[in-house]
Design goal:
Helix 4 packs antiparallel against helix 5. This protein has one domain: Fic-like fold. The radius of gyration is 17 Å and the shape is globular. The chain is mostly helical and about 210 residues long. A two-stranded antiparallel ribbon has the order 1-2. It is built from 8 helices and 2 strands; from the N terminus they run H-H-H-H-H-H-H-E-E-H. A hairpin with a 3-residue loop joins strand 1 and strand 2. Bound molecules: adenosine-5'-triphosphate and magnesium ion. The site of adenosine-5'-triphosphate has 11 residues, from helix 5, helix 6 and helix 7. Adenosine-5'-triphosphate (ATP) binds next to helix 5, helix 6 and helix 7.
Length: about 210
């Protein structure tokens, strides 16, 4: 099926600025999405950490760039990962995105975060963040949306996290999320959780 999100015959996402090269689009993202992320860190988006709240984060961050900001993707995606020898994480089928978001966010809201020590905070926060990311609810911009949504959640639940650590190590964080979610229907569970858990533990400790 042709990808309706890209300019025909290219891998470049259609965008509000009508940019037609990846470099120009990367530059615009670096300017506009980064500005919105800085605003977000100062001015939280109020909400109940449900599905609409999660979608609102993406809408806010990517409002300047994409018409579909805040909308779940309407197609299935694969992304070849060097860390998986070219395999893709098995992202949620697009028809199940809202249902799966509701499940993961429901479980996250029910936990008694206030009673957890550092080990438990690290384990369960890593688990929920990775589960949310594995859905890959959007055509693009999932890592930034998930990280900032989860950091605001942590701020509000009494364990503020050092966001700068994630920003400065964004490549590591994305690879760690891939490693955490390396579970395949054919070759089984190849997941490695320790990389994500390490940086999340550091983020919680630095945020204190
Ligand atoms: N937490 C963050 N804060 C600020 N910038 C980030 C953060 N995480 C990633 N970035 C920057 O955003 C750009 C794109 O990131 P990346 O492609 O890894 O994730 P994404 O587009 O958010 O999600 P995905 O491609 O998985 O849907 C990179 O230039 C990266 O440096
Ligand atoms: Mg990306």
């Amino acid at each position: 099926m042709p990808d309706p999100y890209v300019l025909p015959g290219t891998a470049i996402l259609k965008n509000k600025f009508n940019l037609t090269t990846q470099q120009d689009l990367d530059d615009a993202e670096a300017d506009f999405a980064s500005l919105r992320l800085r605003e977000l860190a100062q001015n939280p988006i109020e909400g109940d950490y449900g599905v609409r709240h999660y979608l609102a984060f993406h809408r806010y961050i990517f409002q300047d760039l994409y018409d579909w900001a805040g909308e779940p993707r309407k197609m299935n995606i694969v992304k070849e990962e060097p860390a998986l020898g070219g395999l893709s994480v098995e992202y949620t089928d697009y028809t199940d995105i809202r249902k799966r978001l509701a499940q993961v966010l429901g479980a996250m809201r029910k936990r008694s975060w206030e009673n957890y020590d550092l080990d438990k905070l690290t384990k369960y926060f890593s688990h929920d963040l990775a589960a949310l990311w594995k859905i890959h609810a959007f055509r693009e911009g999932n890592t930034r949306t998930t990280i900032h949504f989860c950091c605001q959640f942590a701020d509000e639940h009494g364990f503020p996290i050092d966001r700068q650590l994630f920003e400065e190590n964004s490549h590591y964080v994305r690879t760690a999320l891939v490693a955490y979610n390396a579970v395949f229907s054919d070759i089984g569970d190849k997941s490695q959780k320790q990389y994500l858990e390490m940086i999340i533990r550091d983020g919680i400790e630095n945020g204190k």
